[in-house]
Every structure is written in structure tokens, then in C-alpha cells.
Amino acid sequence: MTAVTDREQLAYIAAQAADSRVNVELDTGDMTLNIGPQHPATHGTLRIVAKLDGEQVVSCDPIAGYMHRGYEKLTEVRTYPQVTALVNRIDWLGSFANEVPFILAAEQLMEVEAPPRAQWIRTVLFELARIANISLFLGDMGAQLGAITPVFFAFRDRERVLNQIESATGGRFHPNFDRIGGIKDDLPQGWIDETRSVMTKMRTFCDEMEDLLLGNEIFAARTRGVGVIPGPVAQSYGLSGANLRSSGVDWDLRRDAPSPLVWSELDWKVWTHPDGDSFARFWVRLQEVRESTHMVDQMLDGLPAGPIMAKVPRIIKVPAGEAWVATENPLGEMGYYIVSKGDLVPYRVKIRSASFNNISIVPWVMKGVLVPDIVTILASLYFILGDIDR
Amino acid sequence: MSSSETDEAVEPVEADELRDGLVDAFRAELGDAVVGSHVEPGVDVWIRVTADAWRAAGEFARDRLDCTYFDFLSAIDWMPSPFGRDMDAQEDEASADGDEGAAVMEQGVAGGETRFQLLARVHAPAKGYGLFLKCDVEGDPPTADTWVPVFAGANWHERETAEMFGIDFAGHPNLIKLYLPGAFEGHPLRKDFPLLSRRVKPWPGIVDVEQMPGEDEDEAADAGEGAGS
Amino acid sequence: MIDPTLAVELAYWQQTAIKTLAVMLVIPAGALILGYVFLMKMMAFMQSRLGPMEAGPGGMLQLVADGAKFIQKEDIFPARADRWVFALAPLVVLISTFLIFIVIPVGPDLVVESLDTGIFFALAVSSLSVIGVLMAGWASANKYSLIGGLRAAGQLIAYELPLVLAVVGVVIQAGTLNMQGIVAAQAEGEIFGLGAIGNPFILTQLIGFFVFLVAVQAELTQPPFDMPVAESEIVGGYQVEYTGFRFLFFFMGEFGTAFAFAAIAAVLFLGGWWVPGFDISDNALNWIGPLVMLAKIMLVAFVIFWVRFSFPRFREDQLQAFAWKFLIPLSLFNILATGILKVVF
After folding, report:
1. Residues of C with CB below 8 A from A373's CB?
2. Which of residues 17-36 of B touch A (CB under 8 A)?
3. Which of A76, A79, A358 to mutate to test the interface with B (most CBs of B within 10 A)?
4. Residue of A28, A33, A146 with shortest CB distance to C313
């Protein structure tokens, strides 16, 4: 044992630490940057671990699960109406849209069909959920890129849609309105005219967003050619919704999958874009919001009269079997695979949520991009944490 | 257009033919490996293969049936839950039959022989149809081949299935936990994994039933008390 | 500086004391005015909301309340931070702002020191803030800060050039670097023989004005050039580890510099304290001058802040390309044109 004093030892250790500090700080090759789970850019508690070389990303790994609530386990001990209330909270911005595929799958197993008026109102609320959800995206993508003003307009105009949803269902964010066999209540008086005027205002909002963002050279420079996802790659990862359509794949479940909801009776268009970059994803969603407002107008004109609930027993027991229904939700394709054993509660419910697949492509798409582009690409892929984590 | 208003006579024959044709194509390609199938006319088709042919089935669907779109991959645990339904109040449990959910393991559509079954769905966007693939997995831990070389998106789905059910995917590049923290023990979606909230506080039974549209409150209250069986 | 109305001869130390006091008061006052009017109220109205309404009438005392809040916070140092560098960084930024105000005139006799190298001195000391930013980014011992500091250094240095080149055109036309001389050149100059409103350089140096404003936007690291503090990516950049009164210094530095640059723009391009068309005595101008300057400063600041919340931000490489490939050639062309026209006419 050498006679090194404590003081000398401490001084030595401090010097080593100071040296290593300098080396770590100067070594900009292969730096690990932790984005999240608390970060303004991630829409919730998503953590992205990015290995950087200067400002370029070498590898990028999203770590989800900070908000995992165990939905699939919970559905095994909940009755079908209880599951409906629970399932609102998966994609909380377009909540009504979460209930619909579950209810449709249960109706498929029960061989019950909701009356026409209920189907039409369901579709109206579904499209309103889409408008509410995507209009937030339009403002938020600007905010991620640094344009702090459009997001206020988005929230302001989205309030109008949320007001309509609230006056019909009682809940701004979590309507819990769909029932097996129909819907809970009929529409209030005057709702149809109010909704028509709200749709006009939303079209003005879409024009504003187009002027403010799409027409802006800086926005175009930040998003064009950034995060290009070719069509076949998008399909093999299971991207859905606007992400898939902006890569040139013409696939929209509203048109291509038969459904009791009334999209096939409306005159509307599926928007696609060949580029597959972030600009395309923004552009497609903007057009889809406009298209939705037109669809809502058509539906309000053609709403049939009649009952809103079919004859279903008070206590719902769904016959044994397996059913799958997927719909074109605001975020993408959302589906429920219900396994039933003829009981009050489902045996197993597999929830296929859109953002799960949409974010699984992040390691692939982020190779070699710059740090600012991480935020652009994440913003353009558009996910909701509840949808990823369930 | 829902399944309730279609029966065999009114159903356009093409849908049946299409889905039957898919089953036949699988049988022709994989032969004995196709151990079960089910066609819901006008709705969907399920094909069950052996674990050895799991990856081959995926490749066949992608390359020859144009199913280039990967929807999801998960699993089902067919063992009846040893905790019962967790939906009965203590009083009801005493008077209930008791053989609901007894130790009979019954698999679902397209049959099955093992406790765990893999379930995957793929689409053909160009052709407009989709199909379900099921596969029995056995062993300790239950093992199947990974689908990652077939569909890149299967990566995350297999990670989630592995942590939730304890199924091992041979050949997966990075089979670490997705949702759960690294030190978590157990596999939550297995039926023998308890739902802690129900163990800690038993369910009091259905006490409130929402009024049906057009009913009054007394009927609702009466109906609520007799719930549970 | 002689107080004209009192007509009393003050000793040199008394003059210096008054000047120092004036400059030290003008920074917080300017920051407060700009911050309240533009950052809080104008931005709010443009985003269809009201902004602060509670503190004081119409929310006027909000920034004062914020300042008080910042001052009473705990003085925290990150554990691995370099203490001295960390503490000095905001002071360097603030001092560079103070130094700019030495040469800005607000009246015929109201200038702290009428240096002959006026505008050159102002631009030189304003670029001292780059050192402060680098110090902050380095000393915070935080990867986000480091990235922000590096980005800031690159950006600020890149945009110094268009800033200086834009001013060269003005200097050629005025024939002097002295700020009072530049104001006089605008007051007494003529545009192609018409002397009714003098020669405010915004008219004859429009390109230079445009380049100057863009470069100022970048020097202040405001959107669309706010990569160094891109909030949605690196959460504050080089300022992220600063709290309490040190953050207050950065904040005051940012708005004080905005005030200073707006004042420089008013002097260089809008004619400074001089009011066109009237024949006013020097004495009266000493009283009206500050008000006129304030009005012109508010005008320029309006444009700066309006651009701030309208545009998304440039990516770092696009930002640099914009400076080197567009602004610098443009300002060089402006110098060429100005030189030719000055000689010909």
C-alpha cells in the first residue's frame, strides 16, 4: 500500500472526473439524445432515444409503454357497455370513433342491426370526431415546426366541433354514446342547423391553414422530401390512414370495406398523394378534413327519420364466436377482434390501434435525418399516446 | 351490408367463392399443414396452420395472394380463467350455477389444440380482401417462427405478444419488452395472471343499469338487482 | 451632454453618472415596453386571445410581476456546470446590449457619446453576445444546451455579415459612421433633387433595409431563425439550465437588444429623432426627439415581432444557406448600386 493521502486521492479523482467530463462533452460523434418522455414535441409520454453523430441521427428507437393501461386485460372483466365507456379513451381526440368498431363487431356477433337513423347519426358523429382530431393536427404540426400562431386558430375552431359533439352526446371528449343496437339519444333540436354552420366555419379554417402553412415557403422547405416512406414499406409496416394514402396507396376502409355505416351512400373522394414525405401527409389530412365537412353536410341533408335503437335485451349477452371490424378512424385503421364465449363479458378483445403501427416505422424512417427533422417526421406521422400504448 | 341480413341464398356467390378459393389456395400450397379453416360468407376467412408452416403461410399470403399489407399479429389464450369471471358480486356467486367457465378449454373459430394460438391478419389492398391466419403454438415457452423477414411491421407486434403471453419468436432481431419495464415478471395477458384490481377489491356486481330509451326509472332499478346470471 | 433648458454646466462626473443611469434605465424600460405591447398583447390579439389581463390595468404590470418572480427564485447551478462561466454568460450578453446604447442618439444633443465610429462601434459590441451564448451553452453541462450553443454560434456569426453589409450602403450614402451625422444626412439630404421630406434611407436603401431587418431577426434568434432556442426540439437550447435572475438577464438581454436594434434601424433608415417637414429649433427637438424615436422604434419592432409569430422556423442548414447564398450577395449588390449611384449623382 502506497502512502497516498486522502487529499491526494480526492484530488486525483476530481481531476479524472474533470478530464472525462471534457471528453464526453466534446465527443459529438455518437451522442445519445433522449427526447422525452417529457418533451414538448412528443404528443404525450413517448420516449425517443436517438444516437446522434453531430446533428445527424445514426439510430432512433422509440420506447413506448409509459401510458400502457392494460386495455386488453381490462376488457376481459367488463361488460360490453362498460367496455364501450373504457374504449373512448384510446384515441382521446376522436373518441366517438373508438367506440364504433367495437360496437359494430358486437352487433355482428349478435346479428343485430341498428336502425337507419342510428347508422346515419353514428356516421355524422364519426366524421365530426375526425374533423376534431385532424384539425388539431393541422395546428399542431405548425407548432412543432415553430409557427406558433396556427395552433391557436386550430383550438379555437375545433371548439365549435366539440360543442356540437357535446350538445348531441353530453361529452366533449368522451361521448360514450354508441350502444349495441343503436345510439343512446336522439339529436337535440336545432342541432342540424348549428352543425351546418359549424361545417362552413371549418371549411374557412381549412382555407386559413392552407394559406398559413401549406403556402409558406419555410414550411415547404422543412417538410418536402423529409421522411419519405415508399408505398411498399408503408404496407409492410401496416401504416394506415393518411400515412398510407400519402405514400400513394389508394386504400380507405370507408370505401373499400363494407360497413353498416353510410359512407357508401355519400358522394365523396379519397385523397392520395404520391410523394410519401411529411408535406404529403399534411396535405392529405387537410384535404380529408375538407372532405369530411362536405360529407357531414350531405348526411345532415339526408338524415332519415325513425327509431334510434333496435330491440336488444336489457342485459347484453353476446353469442359465442369471433368477429373483426375495422374502420377508418381519424388516426388510421382501428379494429377490434372480439372473441366471445356467449357471456356478459368478452373472452378476449384484441385492439388493433393505428398509432402502434404508425410509430413502429420510426426506427426505419429516421436513419440519417437531422435532429430538427425528427420532430417534423414525428409530427407528420401523427400519433396519440393512448393509441400507441392502449 | 352486415352479416345479419345475408343468408346463403341472397349472398352474392362471388364472396363465397373468393374466400373458399383462398382456403383452397392455401391447401394446395401447404398441404397437410393447413389443419383448420373457417369461412364466414361475405365477411371473413380464417386459416389455421401448424407452427412449422407459420412463416411459410405468411410468405405465401404476401407473395402469391397479394396480401402485402400487414394488419396485426397477436395471440389468444384459451385456458379458462382460474379466477372465474370476476363479474359476479359475492352474493351472486353463491347462487350461480358454477359450471360456467369450468375447466373445459374450448378453442374458437377454425379449431385448435393448444392453449395458445397465434392470430394474424393480412390484407390485399389491391384486391380488396383480407384473411386471418391462426397457428397453435406449444412448448415451454411456446415457440413460433418470427414473421419479421416477411413483414417488417411484425417486429413490434411480436415483441408485444412475447411480453404479454410469453411466446418466443425464433429469429426475432430484438425480442425485448415493449410496454413493460425491464424487470417485470410474468405475462399479463395470460389467463392465470391475476388482474390485481379485482383481487384487491372484488366487483360489487351490477348495481346500476342505464335506462333504455323510453323507459322509466322503476323498471331500470328492478332489472338492475337481478343482474349477474 | 448639456441640459439645454437648465443651461447649467455639469461636471464631467455628473454627466457620466446621468448618462450611465439613463442607459441602465432604458434597457429594462425598453424591454418592458416591447415585451408587453408586442410579445404579450399584439401576439395575443393576433392569435385570437387576450393575453395577460390580471396584473395591473389590462395586464400592464405582468412583466414587472414576472421580473419580481424571477428575482426571488433560488440560484441553482447544475452539478457539473462550470460555475464561473455559467454565472458570467448572461452578464456578457446583457453588457453587450448596454454598450450599444452608448451611441444611439435620441435628440440633437441627447446622445451618451457621439463617437465618430458610431455605427461600427454599435455593431462590434453587439456581436459580443455570441461569446455569452457560447459560454452558456458550454457551461451548462447539458447536451441540449451544447447543441443550442453550437447552433447559435453558427447562426449569429453567419448573420453578422449581412448585417454589416446592409449598413455599408447607408454609410456610403451618409458619408459618415457617426450616428448623429447619419441623422443629419437624412434630414438635409435630397432624393434626386426633391428635398421636401429629406432623404430617409428607407426609401433609397430599401434593399438594405430589408436585409438589415432579416439579419436583425437572426441576430435576436427569433423565429423564423430561432433554431438555437427551438422550444419544441431542444427545449430552450442554451438557456435551458438557467432559472431565476440569470434567466431574467437573458430575457432582458433579448428584448433589450431588440429595442436597441430597432433603435439603430430607426436611426439608420427612418431618420432618427428628426421630424420631416417642420422647422423646429434644436431645443424643442431635444424634448420631442425621444418621443419621435420611441414611435419609430415601435414601428420597427412591430415588424420584427409580427414576423416572429407568423413563420415556422428554418432548419439550421437552410438558415445558413439563406444567409450565405441569398442575403450576402444581395447586400453586396446593394453596396455596388449605392456606390455607383452616389458617384453618378
Report:
1. 315
2. none
3. A76
4. A146
Closest in A143, A153, A370 to C232, CB measured:
A143
The pLDDT of residue B8? 44
Q: What is the overall mean pLDDT for chain B?
A: 77
Candidates A60, A259, A322: best to mutate against B (most CBs of B within 10 A) is A322
Q: How far apart are CA A362 and CA A378, in angstroms?
A: 8
Considering only CB atoms, which chain C residues are within 8 Å of A377?
none
Between CA B124 and CA C345 the distance in angstroms is 75
Q: What is the pTM of this model?
A: 0.84
Nearest CA-CA partner of B76 in A337, C332, A282: A337
Q: Do C and B have ≥3 inter-chain CB pairs under 8 A?
A: no
Q: How many CB atoms lie within 10 A of CB A317?
A: 14
Cβ atoms of B115 and B107 closer than 8 Å: no
Q: What is this model's ipTM?
A: 0.85
Domain ranges of chain B: 3-194, 204-229
Enumerate residues 6+ apart whose C-beta is below 8 A from A228: A275, A276, A277
- Residues A280-329 have pLDDT tens digits of 999 999 999 999 999 999 999 989 999 989 888 888 888 888 999 999 99
Closest CB from C47, C80, C226 relative to A149: C47
The mean pLDDT value for B29-47 works out to 84
Evaluate whether residue A119 is within a structural domain: yes
The CATH code of the domain that includes A215 is 1.10.645.10
Give chain A's domain count.
1
Q: Between β-strands B168-170 and B143-145, what pairing exists: parallel, antiparallel or unpaired?
A: parallel
Domain B3-194 is found in CATH 3.40.50.10610: no
pLDDT higher for C110 or C213? C213
Beta strands, E only, chain B: 34-40, 44-49, 69-77, 116-124, 129-137, 143-145, 168-170
Residues of A in contact with B101 (CB under 8 A): 341, 343
By residue range, what is the domain housing residue A273? 70-355
In a domain, A205, yes or no: yes
Distance CA A364, CA C51 (A): 42
- What's the pLDDT tens digit per position in A339-377? 988 888 898 999 999 999 999 999 999 888 887 888 889
Residue A330: inside a domain: yes
* Interface probe with A: pick from C82, C238, C311, C318, most Cβ of A within 10 Å: C311
Sort out which chain A residues have CB atoms less than 8 A from B225's CB and list them: none
B94 or C305, higher pLDDT: C305
